[in-house]
Amino acid sequence: VALTETAPVTATPAVTTETTITATPPVTPDETVTETETLTQTGSVTPTTPTPSDIPSVTATSTVTANLRSGPDTTAAIVGRAGIGEEIELVATNDDGTWFLLDSGAWIFGELVDGAPDDLPVATLDLITAVQTAAEARILAEAEAEEAAPEPTPTPTPTVAPTPVPLPTATPTAT
């Protein structure tokens, strides 16, 4: 004969609440894209330079930074400058060969030039007028080509906004 005894069992639940604060970023996108316009020129225009074929020139070099003048004299107005080592195009000389007429219509003192030939023609009024007319036409053509150049096309560039700083939030945890 077996004895069996039954005892009632009572379960009492124990609940403890503990709060833990965990830093979590708010729910937002990590990056914000903002478009910024950047101008980029596309295409180019190459100006055609009208130069009379009957005005030959010879390439020489400026030996110093030199004043370019409106006439073959140190009292003539300064109309430009030639840098050290800059290539210049010689067209003619003055009567005594001490100044050179450039293809731009300006004059440079001969002692400031390297590579000038001895056989350049003497500048006549007709030659000076032709050189100045060709130089003015070249300047005008370059200005017109610059005006006719296409406008730069804006290209959007994305800009990354800074990531927001995480804010602490309370998250209840059961233990």
Provide keyphrases for this structure.
175 residues, mainly beta, SH3 type barrels, 5-stranded antiparallel sheet, two-stranded antiparallel sheet
Q: How would you explain this protein's 3D organization?
A:
The chain has 175 residues and is mainly β. It has a domain at 58-148: SH3 type barrels (Roll). Helices cover 14% and strands 35% of the residues. It contains 1 helix and 11 strands; from the N terminus they run E-E-E-E-E-E-E-E-E-H-E-E. It has one helix at 125-148, and strands spanning 17-24, 33-40, 58-62, 66-69, 78-82, 87-93, 99-102, 107-109, 113-114, 153-160, 167-174. A 5-stranded antiparallel sheet has the order 8-7-6-3-9, with no helix packed on it. Strands 1-11 form a two-stranded antiparallel ribbon. It is rod-shaped. It starts with 16 loop residues before the first strand and ends with a strand. Mean pLDDT is 79; it is low at 45-51.
Low-pLDDT runs of 5+ residues are: 45-51
- On the 0 to 100 scale, the average pLDDT is 79
User: From the alpha-carbon coordinates, what is the Rg to the nearest angstrom?
Assistant: 42 Å
Largest sheet: 5 strands, antiparallel
Count of helical regions: 1
Oligomer: single chain
Q: Name the CATH architecture of one domain.
A: Roll
First and last CA, distance: 47 Å
| Fraction of residues in H or I helices | 10-25%
The name CATH uses for the topology of one domain is SH3 type barrels
H/E element sequence: EEEEEEEEEHEE
Total beta-strand segments: 11
Q: Name the strands of the widest sheet in spatial order.
A: 8-7-6-3-9
- CATH H-tier superfamily of one domain: SH3 Domains
Class based on secondary structure composition and strand pairing: mainly beta
Q: Globular, elongated, flat, extended or rod-shaped: what is the shape?
A: rod-shaped
CATH first level of one domain: Mainly Beta
* Percent of residues in β-strands: 35-45%
